[in-house]
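Record type: monomer structure entry
Structure origin: computed from sequence
Chain ID: A
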Amino acid sequence: MKYIFQIVIGLGLIASGVFHQLSMQIFEIRMYELLGFDWLIFPVLGRIWSGLEMYLGLSLILNVNPKKVHTYILMVISSFVLYDAIWDSFFNENHLYIEIWPFYKIFGEKFAYFKLILALIMVAYVIYDLKKGKATDFKWKWIKFVYLVGAFSYTFIYNAFLPRDLTYAESAHNSSIGILEINEHIKEGYELIPEKDKVVLMFVSLSCSHCLNATKKMAAIKRKNPELDVRLVLFADKNIALFREYANAPDIPHSVVNGKTFIEVTGGSVPQILYVENGEIKRQWDAKSGSFNYEALSFVQHLK
């Protein structure tokens, strides 16, 4: 019976690691919302975590537990999964895992409760193994390092090349017009950009996947820091309600500017993120790095 539980948990961990790899940016947002660490940690932590999931899953299936090392690592992961499952089942209104777990499309919100059951099984297994489990290992000890290295190699290589997102990237296009000029071209009926204090402006296209991911990250930061002034700036507001729904950003206001002004600010590259302080553009990032990079996210995260 114990080995059956090991196989169930092992398969679940391998599937979890793979799904996290397929939607790493969403998983990073999830970890940020649950843990609240500095954004600079998550590109590495997310990949290590998913690698550990695959490694531990295979270890359980192969019945490898050298001196209970795996049990202690599994204890950390199962604690996070339990916390995650409780939060998802009872407190989460955003359901950020929809893009990670395809089972949501089959079972809807009930999948959160299935996840809670799996989390409780994992915790029960850890408690049992700590009390009664015996250390097991391969006869050829070097083999376990092969699939340990393989799991971490896969997770880092698949989501490749961290420097793309970790490298600090100021905008290749620095706006030649300021907030006063932008406000002159905001269409009637929309709020003007405040010219005092601190505000983060996101010039995004509603059809751009990088814009959607950047907005998801910014929305997660705003949920942690409701006082942060963030707004979307668009050249058209068609389908904005749908964009907000998928970005989990219902509380971020938006303004609309004419197309010429939008191009002048962005240089045709979106998303374009501007940090404005007292009406002056202090920092500007664009899509040159492939997404709104982690250093920029960390900077915005710590704005007060």
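Annotation 1: The chain has 13 helices and five strands.
Annotation 2: The two ends are 53 Å apart (CA to CA).
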